[in-house]
Design brief:
- By secondary structure, the chain is an alpha/beta fold.
- It contains 14 helices and nine strands.
- Helix 12 links the parallel strand 6 and strand 7.
- Helix 1 packs across helix 6 and helix 6 crosses helix 8.
- The radius of gyration is 22 Å and the shape is globular.
- The N and C termini lie far apart (about 60 Å).
- The relative contact order is 0.09.
Length: about 350
C-alpha cells in the first residue's frame, strides 16, 4: 500500500513530538529539583549562578548547571547570558516552590514518576486485562497524589464547595458527623476538621500506609481529637448516620462505584448529603480532547483504570463525566443529583436521598 506523506504535516507532528520528549525527560528533573529544594532555594533569591545555587542547596555544581540549563530551555527559569545567572520568576515560584499555593504542581510530577515505575507491569496488563491495586504502586504515588490535590482543596473546599451544598455548611458549623471515603493521606479530612471544630470526621482508605500518615498529619495539625482514620473500603467502613459522606477524586477508581453509592445511602442520615468530587470531564470523548483531558486520560490509563481492573470492576476512568456519575448515584438509591460547583479541574456533585 502506497502512502503519500504530507511533509508539512509530518514536520508539524515531529515538532509536537520533540516538545513531548523534552517534557517527558524534564518531568524527572522537576522531581529532582523538588526533592533537593532547588526551586525553594531559588524562590525570591534573584539571579543565581549554578555555583551559588549548588552552595545554597549542598549539591554538586556540575549537575546543577546542567539542570538549570534544561530548566531554562523549558521556560521554567530564565537565563541572563551577560551575567551567567538564572532566575526563578515569581509566577514559576508560585507554582513550583510554594506548597501553600493553589497552583502548586510538583506533586503531579511524583504521580508521573509512579506511572513510569509501573510501566513494565502495565505493559503486561494490556495483554492480560489484569490491574494494579492502588497500594501496590511506588510510594511516591501516595505522597504525590496528596500534594497535587491538596492545593485545590485548600483553595476551594471550605470556601466554595461545601457552601454550595444544600444546608451542609450550617450543619458543619453546628456539629455534624462526616465520613471522608478514600481519604488517602487525609488532606481533605484535616482541612474540614480545622474549619469546623464542632464536627466529627472519619477518614477511610484501603491503603494502610496512607492511613498511618494521615494519623500523623492529623496530630501535627492539632485535630487528632476530632478526626479518626481507619483502614476500610468503600463498602465496609464503620459508622452510620453521617450528615455528609464525601468521595474526593476516588469514586471513578473503585471496582464497583454503584455498590459504593449504595453503601453511602445506607450510612447516611435521613437528610444527609453525598458529595462527589471528580476530575472535570465532558460527556463525550470528543469533549475531552484537549491538554487537560490528555493529562487525565494518561493518568487514568496508568493508575485509575488498573485499580478498578484489579477488582474486576467497571473501570469508569478519570474522565467518567457527569452523566455516568449521575447513573451511579441513581442506581445506588439516590433520587436527587446535581452539579453543585466546578473548577477547571473538578466537578463537585451533590446527591441526596
Amino acid at each position: 500500500m502506497n502512502t503519500t506523506i504530507d511533509q508539512d504535516k509530518l514536520n508539524a507532528f515531529l515538532g509536537h513530538v520533540v516538545g513531548d520528549m523534552g517534557a517527558a525527560m524534564s518531568a524527572v528533573l522537576v522531581v529532582i529539583g523538588d526533592k533537593l529544594g532547588l526551586y525553594k532555594a531559588m524562590a525570591g533569591a534573584g539571579p543565581l549562578t549554578s555555583g551559588e545555587l549548588a552552595k545554597k542547596t549542598g549539591t554538586h555544581e556540575r549537575y546543577v548547571r546542567e539542570w538549570l540549563s534544561a530548566q531554562a530551555a523549558g521556560g521554567y527559569v530564565t537565563y541572563d547570558a551577560a551575567t551567567s545567572r538564572f532566575t526563578l520568576p515569581a509566577e514559576q515560584a508560585f507554582a513550583l516552590a510554594d506548597e501553600g499555593s493553589p497552583a502548586f504542581v510538583p506533586g503531579f510530577f511524583q504521580v508521573i514518576e509512579a506511572g513510569a515505575k509501573a510501566e513494565e507491569r502495565m505493559t503486561d496488563n494490556f495483554r492480560s486485562g489484569k490491574g494494579i491495586p492502588w497500594g501496590e504502586h511506588a510510594p511516591c504515588l501516595f505522597e504525590g497524589t496528596e500534594r497535587f490535590f491538596r492545593p485545590g482543596y485548600m483553595a476551594n473546599l471550605t470556601s466554595s464547595w461545601l457552601p454550595a451544598l444544600e444546608g451542609v455548611e450550617g450543619k458543619l458549623k453546628r456539629g455534624a458527623k462526616v465520613a471522608d471515603v478514600g481519604c488517602g493521606l487525609g488532606a481533605s479530612t484535616i482541612l474540614m476538621a480545622k474549619a469546623f471544630p464542632t464536627s466529627r470526621f472519619f477518614g477511610f482508605d484501603i491503603h494502610g500506609g496512607s492511613i498511618d500518615l494521615a494519623r500523623a498529619r492529623a496530630a501535627e495539625a492539632g485535630v487528632a481529637d476530632r478526626v479518626v482514620f481507619e483502614v476500610a473500603s468503600s463498602t465496609d467502613y464503620t459508622g452510620s448516620g453521617y450528615d455528609l459522606v464525601a468521595h474526593f477524586d476516588c469514586l471513578h477508581d473503585m471496582g464497583d462505584p454503584t455498590a459504593a453509592a449504595r453503601y453511602v445511602r445506607q450510612t447516611l442520615a435521613a437528610d444527609g448529603t453525598w458529595m462527589v468530587v471528580e476530575p472535570f470531564a465532558g460527556e463525550k470523548l470528543e469533549d475531552n480532547l484537549h491538554p487537560l483531558g490528555r493529562v487525565f486520560y494518561a493518568a487514568s490509563t496508568l493508575l485509575c483504570v488498573p485499580n478498578s481492573m484489579a477488582a474486576e470492576g467497571v473501570a469508569l476512568g478519570a474522565q467518567a463525566g457527569e452523566g455516568r456519575l449521575r447513573r451511579v448515584a441513581l442506581e445506588g438509591g439516590f433520587t436527587r443529583f446535581r452539579r453543585a460547583a466546578e473548577t477547571p479541574f473538578n466537578l463537585v456533585l451533590e446527591a441526596r436521598p
